[in-house]
Structures are given as structure tokens and as C-alpha cells.
Amino acid sequence: MTGTPVRVLLARHGETVFNVEGRWQGQSDSALTERGLAQARQLAAALADEPVATVYSSDLGRSMDTALQVAAAHGLSVEPEPRLREIDVGEWAGLTRADLDARYGHMREAWATRPWTLRLPGGETLFEAQTRVLEFFTERMPRHLGQTVAVITHGAIGQAILVHGMGRSIHDLWLKERLDNCQISRLDWTPEAGLRLVELSDVRHLSEVGSLRGWRTTDSDVEVA
After folding, report:
1. Is 74 a known active-site residue?
2. Whose CA is closest to 160, among 190, 137, 191?
3. pTM for this one?
4. What SS3 class is residue 55?
5. What is the pLDDT of residues 118-128, one digit of tens each?
6. CA-based Rg of the chain, rounded to a whole angstrom?
7. Catalytic residue among 74, 144, 154, 205
8. Is 154 a catalytic residue?
9. Three-state secondary-structure class, residue 134
């Protein structure tokens, strides 16, 4: 199978209440804040002139609410996709950093420095989460050769997509660049090469509404997955 690449516009969902509170979300859910809704609208405006053929989204509410804004700008509906969900953090869902320090201190430190070594209690490993999301691209992208698709997902799973697109391993999950809410990264997908990064984390469209920085556990103003 050959053909012109699929252009993938990869975006993270808008800011949520749990993001602001520093709580782990995983596959639980938290509503978008007012700024999160504004970010979603700015994301939609930034992508309005792109020739988007399909909008895929994690089926979790915060991602779907963001994707609906993008899809509406193109007169499209959203294709919900469970494989785009955030990593399942199991028992960590809803917990703060202080909670983790009290209950899982050694594991939280490992997540910050060597996350590929962990299975989160009752949840997934990073390898399992990355495997399922890459299966989505392998299965769905061949139908979009020569088209542009928007993919709305989450922090850690988006990072797993991006490191793969850079030709790097899951060991490089925590990139130096921050993956802000409603950032846009551009990748190409081809049957021969799979995903290849074109542009990382464009946030120019967020200049007026701002964004909550530092979702990684290694950052001082932590915002978690």
C-alpha cells in the first residue's frame, strides 16, 4: 500500500478542573474549566482553515468536549475512539501529589524519573497504553491517505504518540517541551514509515487565553495525567 501521507493534527484536550487542582485523571473524567472551553474554541479556530476530513477523539468527556468544537468548525461529527483514552492510572485517579506521597511515595518518584518501569496500581503500563494507541493509527490511517485528520487525546498518551513519531522509545516519554492543553502537534503517517513528527506543540493560538503549564510530575507546578 502506498500513497500520499496522512497529515495528523494531534491536540490535547482543554484544561480541566482536575488539571487545576493537580489531581490525576487517567480514565476517570473531569469537566473542562471556563479557560478549558476557551482553549477548545481557540483550537477550533486555529484548525478552521485546515482541510480536516475526520475528527477522532478519545471517548472520555474532556476530550470529546474539546473535539466537538473542532468538528463543528468543519461541519463534522466526532469519531469516538477508546484507544485514544489517557493511560489508565487505576487507584491513582482523583489523587493529588500529596495523596501519592503519603500512599505511593516510592512509585510517584519512579513515575517522574523512570515511568516505563511501572504498572500503575490497578491500571496500565506505558507500553500497554502506547501499544493500543499505535494500533489505532495502524488500523485507521490507511483509509485517510492524502487527507488531514484531527486527533484529540490526552497528556501522557499524546506524549507516547509523539516520542514514537520522533523515532524515540517510551523511555523518552518526558520531553523537554511541555504538552500544554490544546497544543497542536503535526505529524505525517505513511504505510511505509508510520508516524513521523513534523511540528511539536504549537501554542500560538493560546496566547490570549493562556494555559496551565507543567503537567509532568517532574515540574514544580505539577499538573498530572
Report:
1. no
2. 137
3. 0.91
4. strand
5. 899 999 999 99
6. 16
7. 154
8. yes
9. helix
Who contacts 98 (Cβ-Cβ below 8 Å, separation ≥6)?
none
Cell of 14: 482543554
* Whether 162 contacts 134, CB under 8 Å: no
Segment 117-141 mean pLDDT: 95
Strands in 52-57's sheet, in edge-to-edge order, are: 78-80, 52-57, 148-153, 6-12, 184-190, 194-202
Sign for the pseudo-dihedral over CA of 215, 221, 222, 223:
negative
Phi, psi for residue 50 in degrees, rounded to 5: -80, 145
- The pLDDT > 70 percentage for the chain reads 90
6-206 CATH fold: Rossmann fold (3.40.50)
What is the pairing mode between strands 78-80 and 184-190?
unpaired
Can you give the residue ranges of every domain in the chain?
Answer: 6-206
**Counting beta carbons within 10 angstroms of the beta carbon of residue 162, is it exposed (0 to 12), middle (13 to 18) or buried (19 or more)?**
buried
The Cα–Cα gap between 182 and 201 comes to: 9
Q: What are the pLDDT digits (tens) for 46-55?
A: 999 999 999 9
